Amino acid sequence: TRTTVGIVGAGPAGLMLSHLLALSGIESIAIDARSRTEIEHTHRAGILERDSVRLLVDTGVSDRVLVEGHEHKGIDLRFSGVSHRIDFQSLVGASTWLYPQTDVFVDLANARSRDGGDVRFGVTDTQVVDVTSATPGIVFTEEDGTRREVRCDYLVGADGSRSICRREVPEALRRQYFREYPFAWFGILAQAPRSAEELIYARSDAGFALISQRTDTVQRMYFQCDATEDVDRWSDEQIWDQLQTRLAGEDGFRLAEGPILEKTVLPFRSFVQEPMRYGNLLLAGDAAHTVPPTGAKGLNLALADVRVLAETLELAILKNDVDALDGYTARALDRVWKAQHFSYWMTTMLHRVDGASDFDVQRQLGELRSIVESDAGSTYLAEAYTGWPR
Ligand code: DHB
User: What are the TM regions of this chain, as residue ranges (predicted)?
Assistant: First the structure.
């Protein structure tokens, strides 16, 4: 078979790209090793930047985010037991939306089937071939066992943090940037009413905690833990104790508790691979970069990549402007490195590091005060969190 763009990965990045290309009349196929159900049930982050919401709504994916999502006009930074509101609306005139990544995926998958897009889940033994040729290809086995080869003009690696596509860029031509962190997040879903209307990012001497929400009856929370933590060692009571301790303060704030439905440890690392283009292969989203979860940039960054990539491919395919491909890496990385800095900064400003000196602790508190007590400081946080305007 032949198509114009072959997309490896049918998560939010791959599906959004396929959707945007279809709007310009460009044919594509998107394949994924996971089943649709598996992707729908893998809990990820839940915060969309202003422009991510616009992209979903304005390109006709769905306006469900506006109906079922929750507009957040700010966040609370909590430290030394006191909450400080960062008011996005008054600082930068923007909001974010609480809308889980799993719902973004469902909306995109529905839009692709509504519009007749070619998306295949649950494929196995995927290989990409001839990436520097004029007809690179994807070879894979369909769910029913049929082996297929699809040839295309361009290949896109939107296949996540364990990307097979990024390995196609020869070692001598690529550069990888890594940063490890000496902690992780313990994430829970709990059956309980909301403890707050918006998000609380809390720094305490016992470590970081984040209070988020999902629905009226199910809540999402995280707390800093060891990278090697075993979730099964933790009882519900111990988990609530940790969270209550990290949120405690002079205002007497208490989280509403309930049965814990799910427990997972989230990995923490920063990673970038450049270039994001090699021959006729282009990388997008986590295939090219990973951010630590603090600040919820991962999905938003993937969608921002895809918007630039769709424009790039439209120029190359519809206007014969193949030079546009040369600019993709620099255009995408400009935002990637700002988001890398922001995610790193939010992480280091709010987490406890074992063996930190008294100086380190006081400096961290000074940093937090210099953000919340100043419009100049808060405005940087608000602008980055709601998403840099394009
Ligand atoms: C969520 C996750 C994040 O990493 C974050 O910064 C904010 C919210 C969430 O899952 O709701």
Answer: none
CA of 193 to the centre of ligand 1 (A): 17
User: What is d(CA 231, CA 264) in angstroms, rounded to the nearest whole number?
Assistant: 6
Whole-number Å distance, alpha carbon 20 to ligand 1 midpoint, is 26
Examine the residue annotation and report whether 72 is marked as an active-site residue of this protein.
yes
* 293 CA closest ligand 1 atom index: 4
- Residue 163 reports pLDDT greater than 90: yes
Select from 43, 44, 47 the residue to mutate for testing ligand 1; criterion: most ligand atoms less than 8 Å from CB: 47
pLDDT, tens only, 348-367? 999 999 999 999 999 999 99
Q: What share of the chain is helix, strand, coil (3-state, %, to 5)?
A: 40, 25, 35
Residue 380 annotated in active site: no
Using a 6 Å CB cutoff, which residues line ligand 1?
45-47, 199, 210, 212, 220, 293-296
Gyration radius of the chain over CA positions: 21
| Number of other residues whose CB lies within 10 A of the CB of residue 135 | 11
Q: From the CA of 295, how far away is ligand 1's center (Å)? A: 7
| 117 pLDDT above the threshold of 90 | yes
* Separation in Å, CA 80 to CA 73, 77, 125, 240, 248: 23, 10, 52, 19, 9
Q: What are 248's two structure tokens?
A: 């405690």
Quick one: DSSP state of residue 186? Answer: E
Q: Please give the helix or strand (H or E) that residue 233 lies within, else none.
A: none
Q: How confident is the model over 127-138, as a mean pLDDT?
A: 96
Catalytic position from the list 181, 222, 328, 385: 385
| Domains in the chain: boundaries | 5-71+98-179+269-347, 180-268+353-386
**Residue 390: its pLDDT value, please?**
83
What ipTM goes with this model? Answer: 0.98
> Which of the listed residues 210, 342, 346 should we mutate to test ligand 1's pocket, taking the one with most ligand atoms within 8 A of CB?
210
Which superfamily is assigned to 5-71+98-179+269-347 in CATH?
FAD/NAD(P)-binding domain (3.50.50.60)
> Per residue in 45-74, pLDDT tens?
999 999 999 999 999 999 999 999 999 999
Q: What is the mean pLDDT of residues 111-125?
A: 98
Q: Give the closest residue (by CA) to ligand 1 atom 7.
A: 296
Query: What CATH number belongs to 180-268+353-386?
Result: 3.30.9.10
pTM score > 0.95 for this model?
A: yes
